[in-house]
Amino acid sequence: MRWILIITLICLLACKRDLGDDLPTPVLRLVVHGWVTDQIGPYTVTLQSTGGVLGSPQIFNIGNAEVKVVDNFGTVYDFLEVEPGIYQSGIEFQGQIGAHYFLEVIIGDGRRYRSAVEPLLPVAPIEAITCAAALGANEQPGFNLGLEFIDPPIVQNQYRWITYINGEAQNRPLQMRLGNDKLTDGDRQLVDLGFYPLQAGDRVVVEQRSLSEPSFDYLSLLITQAQGLGNTFSPNPGLVVGNMYNVDDPNEVVLGNFGASAASTIQLIK
Amino acid sequence: MISVRTLTLVIVLVLLACTTVNAQESVLDRAVNIELQSGSLADFLKEIQKEASVSLSYSQNHIARYQDLQLSSNLGTVRAVLEHLLQETDLDYTVKGRIIIIKKKSRRKPRLATLNGTVREQQSGEVMIGAAIYIPKLQQGTTTNTYGFYSLSVPPGDFEVHYSYLGSKSEVRSISLRDSERLDVELSDSLIVLNTLEVVADPYRNVTNTETGVVTIDAKTLTEIPFLYGEKDVISGVRLLPGLTTVGEGASGFNVRGGDIDQNLLLLDEAPVYNSAHYYGLFSVFNPAAVKSMKLLKGGIPASYGGGSAAVFDIKQREGNTKKFKMTGGLGVPAIRLNLEGPLVKGRSSYLIATRSTFTNLSSLGIANFEDSEAGFSDLNVKLNYQLDPKNRLYLSGYLGDDTNEFNDTGNRLQWGNTTATLRWNHTFNHKLFANFTAVYSRYKYQVDLPGAINNLALRSKLLDYIVKADFNYYFRPGLTLDYGVNLVYHRFQPGTITTSSEVNPDRSVALPSEKALEVAVYGSLRHQLTDRLKAEYGLRLSSFRNLGPQTVFQYQPGQSRSISTISDTLNFDDGETVKRYQSLEPRLALVYRLDKRRSLKFSYNFNRQYTHLISNSTAAQLTDLWKLSDTHIKPKVTNQFSMGYYWDPHDDLEFSGEFFYRKFNHLLEYRDNADLVLNPQLETEVVDAAGKSYGMELFLRKTKGALTGWIAYTWSRSKRRTSGAISEDQINNGALFNANFDRPHDLKLLGSYRINHRWHLSASWQVSSGRPVSYPDGSFQFEGIQVPVFSQRNGQRLPAYHRLDISANLKGKNRKNRRWQGSWTFALYNVYGRSNPFSVVFNQNPDGSGLRIDELSILDSPIPSVTYNFTF
């Protein structure tokens, strides 16, 4: 009997509670994402709320909002709601390198939001795409993709690389690629895009985008956060805030970011 | 490299040490053969002068009245004859140079004679720190200092002097003390007869000393604690004491009474150690085989210490056996150990060499996150000492440690280690003045190599300290001792250099500029018995810090948060130019009021400033975290601490203490959310100034003797932080209080050790504490199909409670006469019931894209058995 009690006690000591029960009550916040490029549009702005953490997040799309992008010449480009919470520009709007843009949103209850002014910076052309046979996890055959370009000297540059396989953007957190020339200004840049199990006939397109420094910081933090923090030495998690703010109430926490990029692309048919 | 200035100073110190003072044989000890049996004092004095060839000085007026004195036997020495002749007179004698002066006894102030010397361990010849010296007849006593020296001034007379040290047999010496006299004593080890140990001298040291919040663990106690893989570890040992917390297993360092880990000053033979972690903190760099004493000061910190604004962990290395060669060692799961020690010149000089090295891949031992890597460490402790004469002794000690960890999947390689060297010269100027001159070199460096498929990166960083100091102890009289000294530190921090290399581009290096600073401090502190019941230790430390150029300092727009966009000006400083100066007067006070012989009340107040900062944005400190010196924007950390306690020895083998503390911290550095700390030349833009407070109660009951020993330690405490910026960008949690990473309100630690017989010895420890604070998301949003958690409150929730049971059994080999080889086995089981204590939680994407899931990370989540073999030869 004594041993049963001891074993029971040991089992109880080894038990743990469900951590999901400790999550705080979700707080609803506005999330705005929008991006303008020098490529042909339309461009998209999404307005959503934050949702829960576990399981289906119950995110609300915010419709019936007034959405517009304004450039440094005062030109206003209206965005129309094409789906609940998704707004698109007209075909007449194409971003111009050297121009500056900001986003303005007025939602149904009259609250006005605006982004910081974003420059549309030029981007260097991609010189080559590389493709080397490699083995992935579990000995899966595939290819390590890479690209080469020459970073413009003197100026500080930030980049994002998006890989499309057969037209589909590869945007899982571990596939997202960002970089800057902090250590390699003016050098020939070699970018490791990661491993992909390509099949014969697959079409690979890599897009190289310029980023402003604040947008680069925002995406870096977002990727870090999305990759899962909490390892022994990983940074402590924190609130990822972009360049959106409430015009009338600067204390309101608004999430998301509005950015502008020039883009260059390269294609590979396997 | 050691600077020329430091080298010059070291040479001067060595030369000075070589200029030794010849000890004079006291004229009082000369043999004398007096045949005269009766006569006047004048006759006897003339006889002494003639027979012993000594010079006597006296006034005829003083001795004329003593005409009929008797000397029953030949007493041997001049001292004995004089003692006998003068005992019934109003005369006394003293020695000046080689002349004995006979003079009238002073009526105003009794003459004091000083007994001084060194207390050593008999078996090894090593000095004993904190050994008690006590004269029951006078009810006066003292303790040896860090170098085993003591000095006790008392009225002349015949006494029994008791020498004792916990774990050693007491020694009683009868002494006829007339003048200053040196008496070196050796105490023998009594571990085997500990049950019957009689500690005569000051048995209530727990109650009587002025130290609050001071904990010591001796080498014997370390053998009674069950450790991970049976590997004795100094820091894991002290973590079992009250008031210490940590963020979890696998985290380096420890937190003392709500302070950050960088607020602990770790000293190894007076050299600062910046990273105490082997293998990320599962083991510490302090090899127990080389450690002589460990003292953790978390309450009252004397003025002689500066820089540790939360605690000082003072570790002294052993000196080595001065009498015979000894070899000890062991073989455990993680490491093999070998220690050699012995005399270089018998009785005068000894050496100690202690080394450890892993021979298995530590990553294969089942530790989460590191399975797919190769890891190991090694270290070497060396110490030499040489006694030039009874008043001069030289010590040279050093430490060299190295850790490597290479990850198989990425090829990433990390390497880090400390190097220290300490040269000390102990000099006894006279029977009341003891001095220690020290020169220290300390270096911590790390290197991270990140070979990429295309680009290779290497990050290197180095911290250097050069220290010279002089410390003095002046023993005025019983109950009044002055400690004073001067301390000079030259810091040179090289925060980081990144080198990139690739096939197509030339190697490139980007380096953050080095930081330099000069820190000077002078201090004075009195240990003072104010009344029979009240004892005090009070002192002042004046510290001055100068951050030196070359440096570029950015100025920011007033009223704005520091960022690149708010830079208003740039100031350039030349090499050696003062960039920023701080200075401070740091008062220290400790009081003990003795209620009766078994109970006392203690109080302490400390004001500490610290000029070095560890900037980290991770839960556990990383080896790549940045150390930073105070500068224009980063102010010195300040700690004010009040502590009071009730100390009670309810029984001769029981000690109890209950302490309350309150600490207020200023100018702590809190990282901004998502701070970018890597190679950032403007670190001030990534941190915000914060204040903090911690308070709590520590209860500690310890059984020190008998077959069953151990302790119960319970702490209730809180540690909170609040950013002090007025604008929202400089605030965390909107300027509201938030829990420190290591805040664990309840913390209970039990240690029991039971000696079954002289061969078998069982130990168990159980720890239970509140879970540490963590940040949980209060929402999530979508970005390009990725669900991103939203963390808006820092440390708002807690992990589940932490608890763990460890057990061990020690088996000593049979004692066989004439056999030098003695072995022992340690069988240990860590985390007996396999509790999976989460270190942290991770919010990961579900692979099917259905949102987030919670993953727990535990470092050691299953029972870990181990066997260790130790030997002594």
Q: So what's the overall shape of chain B?
A: globular
Residue-averaged pLDDT of chain A: 88
**Oligomeric form:** heterodimer
Number of helices of chain B: 7
From the N-terminal CA to the C-terminal CA of chain A, the straight-line distance is 70 Å
Strand tally of chain B is 56
Q: What's the pLDDT, averaged over the residues of chain B?
A: 85
- What count of helical segments of chain A does DSSP give? 2
What level of helicity do the residues of chain B show?
under 10%
H-E string of chain A: HEEEEEEEEEEEEEEEHEEE
- Percent helix range of chain A: 10-25%
Task: Work out the radius of gyration of chain B.
Answer: 30 Å
Largest two-chain interface: A-B, 67 and 81 residues
Gap from first CA to last CA of chain B: 38 Å
Largest sheet of chain A: 10 strands, mixed
Strand content of chain B: over 45%
Shape type of chain A: globular
Biggest pleated-sheet summary of chain B = 22 strands, antiparallel, barrel
Percent of residues in beta strands of chain A: 35-45%
Uncertain ranges of chain B: 6-25, 191-202
Label this structure with key terms:
heterodimer; A: mainly beta; 10-stranded mixed sheet; 5-stranded antiparallel sheet; 2 helices; globular; B: 873 residues; mainly beta; 5-stranded mixed sheet; 7 helices; 56 strands
